[in-house]
Amino acid sequence: MGSGNENSKLVVLIVLFFAVMTIMYVTNSWIKRELDESSNKSAAVQQPLVRVVEKEKLANGDEPVAQSLPASSEQDPQTQAASATTADHQEKEPKKVVYELPIHEVNLPL
Amino acid sequence: MRITNNKGVALAITLLVIIVLITLGGLFVLRAVNEKNISDHQQMAAKAFYIAEAGINLGIDKLDTLINTNMLTTVNALNPQVLSNKAQTAVSNADGITFLIDTVKVGGAAQLTLVGTNAEYNVGTTAFGSGNYQYKITISEKSDPAVVPPGPDKWKLEYYYAISSTGSSSSETKRVLLTGDFTVEVQRDNFAKYALFTDHHGTPSGGTVWFTDKTNFAGPLHTNERYSFAFNPSGTFDGAVTQQLSTARFYNNGNPFLTNASANGTLDVPVFNVSYTRSVAEIVLSSSVQKQDLIDQARGGDTTPGNGIFVANNGTALTGGIYVNGNATVSLGVDGNGDAAYTITEGTTTKIVTVKRASNQTSVETVGVSTTTYGGLPDGVDDVGTIIYVNGAVNSLSGTVQKDTEVTVSSENDIIITNNINYQEYTPAVGTPGTAGYVPPNADGKTNLLGIVAWGGNVRVGTSAPNNISMHGIVMARNGIFTVDNYTSTTVGPRGTATLLGGAITQFYGAFGLFNGSTSTQIAGYGRNFVYDSRTLLGKAPPYFPSMRAFIAFTNDLTDKLIWQNR
Question: Is the pTM here over 0.80, yes or no?
Answer without folding.
Answer: no
